[in-house]
Design goal:
Elements lengths: L16 E5 L3 H12 L3 E6 L11 E5 H9 L3 H7 L1 E3 L1 E5 L5 E6 L11 E5 H15 L2 E4 L3 E6 L4 E5 L4 E4 L1 E4 L6 H5 L7 E13 L7 E5 L5 E6 L4 E9 L11 H9 L6 H5 L9 E9 L5 E2 L2 E3 L5 E2 L7 H16 L7 H31 L6 H12 L4
Parallel strand pairs: 1-2, 1-12, 2-8, 5-14, 12-19
Antiparallel strand pairs: 3-7, 4-7, 5-6, 9-10, 10-11, 13-16, 13-17, 14-15, 15-16, 17-20, 18-19
C-alpha cells in the first residue's frame, strides 16, 4: 500500500503567495505540493527551455522515489525508467567481483533503485507543474529582493514586479539568491571530475556496475530505460579551460576503452562531443540557517555532494517535501517555522554529504582497506526513515 500523506491546509487569513526561483527537481516539487494545498505559487526559471533537454541520466534510490510518489508522478516515472535492486562491482577487465543487494530506502513497495533519462524526469515534473495551476515564467530571473516584516517585494528581469509572503530559492548550486540574502557559503571542488554520456543499453545491463581502478577512479553505468543507459567515468579534476569541448568524445573514449565487459559496446557510441558532459564534483553544506527573513533555500542552493552515493536529487526532493509539510501545517510563516525546516533537514543532509565526500576522498587518497560497504550501509539504513 502506498504511504501517501495528506498535507494540511495553509495558514488562515487569506491565500498565501509564494515565489519559487528555479525549476529543477526541488523547485518543481515544492510548487506541486504547495499548489495542492491551495497556495498561490509563481515559478520562475532562468532557462527558456526549462532544462527539458539537459543531462544524460539519473539514478534515483527509494527515498527519492517515495517523494515522487507523494507528488503523484510515480506511475509515469515507473514506466519511463528502469528499476533494479542490486549493485555490481567489477574489475577493470569486466570480471564481476561481487554483487550486493540494494537497501530499499523508500520501503518494500518501491524499487531499491531506478535509473532514468534525466530529461524525461524533468518533463514529467514540468507536466505536473503545468497541471497544478502554478504561474510559470521561463527565461526570467529575480533581479532584486526587498524584504519587510510582512513579505518580499521582487523585481524581475522582464521589468515586472511582484509581492510574496515567501520566496523559495531553488536556483541551484551557484544560487544568486543565496548570495543576495547574505549567505556566504560557496560550492567547492572535491578534486574529482566526471565524464557522462547517454547510450543504447546492451541487453546484459540490468543494474549499475562499478569498476574501481584502471585509468580512472570509477567507470560505471546505469540502465535508464529498456533501450538506454548512461555511462560515466570519474577521474581527477583537470583545468576545464584546457580541454577543448570538441575533444570531449575523444577524451571520454580514451578513458573508457581501457575497461572490459560491456564497455566496448558502450564505447562504440562515444563519438559525438556534444553528447558528452564533463563536470567537476562540488560540495556545499550551508550549516547555518537556510533562511534570511522570508527567503528560504532549498535543494542544491543549500547543499550538494558528489554523486558517489547517488543521493543529490533525493536530498533536494526531500527538502521540498519537508518544507511544504511545514508551510501547510497552519503555523505562522516566521523564523520559528523556517528554522524548524533547517533543524529537521540538517542532520540527515549532513550525514549524506559527509558520507559522499568520504567515499571520494578514500579514492583520491588511494585507501585500499576503507570500510566503504559499512559506511554506505549505515547511511542507507538511516535513509529508510521518513525525512
Amino acid at each position: 500500500m502506498a504511504d501517501s500523506r495528506t498535507l494540511p491546509q495553509p495558514p488562515a487569513g487569506g491565500t498565501p503567495t509564494v515565489l519559487v526561483i528555479g525549476g529543477g527537481a526541488s523547485g518543481n516539487a515544492v510548487t506541486i505540493l504547495l499548489r495542492r494545498a491551495g497556495i498561490a505559487v509563481d515559478l520562475i526559471e532562468a532557462k527558456p527551455d526549462w532544462n527539458a533537454t539537459t543531462g544524460s541520466g539519473i539514478t534515483l534510490q527509494g527515498n527519492a522515489l517515495r517523494v515522487l510518489r507523494e507528488l503523484g508522478v510515480w506511475e509515469q516515472v515507473e514506466v519511463s525508467g528502469y528499476a533494479f535492486g542490486s549493485l555490481g562491482v567489477t574489475a577493470p577487465d569486466g570480471t564481476v567481483l561481487f554483487v550486493a543487494e540494494d537497501i530499499q530506502t523508500g520501503g518494500e513497495d518501491l524499487p531499491a533503485t531506478l535509473g532514468m533519462q534525466r530529461p524525461r524526469l524533468q518533463q514529467i515534473l514540468i507536466d505536473a507543474v503545468r497541471a497544478c495551476g502554478a504561474d510559470v515564467r521561463l527565461g526570467t530571473t529575480a533581479e532584486a529582493l526587498e524584504q519587510d516584516a510582512d513579505g518580499v517585494s521582487v523585481r524581475f528581469s522582464d521589468g515586472s514586479e511582484g509581492r510574496y509572503d515567501l520566496v523559495i530559492a531553488a536556483d541551484g548550486l551557484n544560487s544568486a539568491t543565496r548570495a543576495a540574502i547574505g549567505v556566504t557559503d560557496k560550492p567547492e571542488p572535491t578534486g574529482m571530475a566526471i565524464w557522462r554520456i547517454a547510450a543504447p543499453r546492451p541487453e546484459s545491463v540490468t543494474r549499475t556496475d562499478l569498476a574501481y581502478g584502471g585509468p580512472a577512479y570509477i567507470a560505471g553505468y546505469c540502465p535508464t530505460s529498456e533501450n538506454t543507459l548512461y555511462a560515466y567515468v570519474v577521474e581527477g579534476c583537470r583545468d576545464r579551460a584546457s580541454i577543448d569541448p570538441a575533444t570531449y568524445a575523444d577524451e571520454m573514449r580514451r578513458l573508457a576503452q581501457s575497461y572490459g565487459g560491456v564497455w566496448p559496446e558502450i564505447t562504440e557510441h562515444i563519438t559525438d562531443p556534444k553528447k558528452v558532459n564533463y563536470t567537476w564534483f562540488d560540495h556545499l553544506l550551508v550549516e547555518d540557517s537556510w533562511h534570511r527573513g522570508r527567503v528560504v533555500l532549498i535543494g542544491d542552493a543549500a547543499h550538494c555532494c558528489p554523486p558517489t552515493m547517488a543521493q543529490g536529487a533525493a536530498m533536494s526532493l526531500e527538502d521540498a517535501l519537508v518544507l511544504a509539510e511545514l508551510l501547510t501545517s497552519g503555523r505562522d510563516w516566521g523564523d520559528e517555522l523556517l528554522q524548524a525546516y533547517h533543524d529537521r533537514r540538517i542532520p540527515r543532509v549532513r550525514t549524506v554529504v559527509e558520507a559522499s565526500m568520504q567515499i571520494g576522498q578514500w579514492q583520491l587518497d588511494g585507501v585500499r582497506d576503507a570500510d566503504m560497504a559499512g559506511l554506505v550501509g549505515r547511511t542507507m539504513d538511516l535513509l529508510k526513515e521518513r525525512p
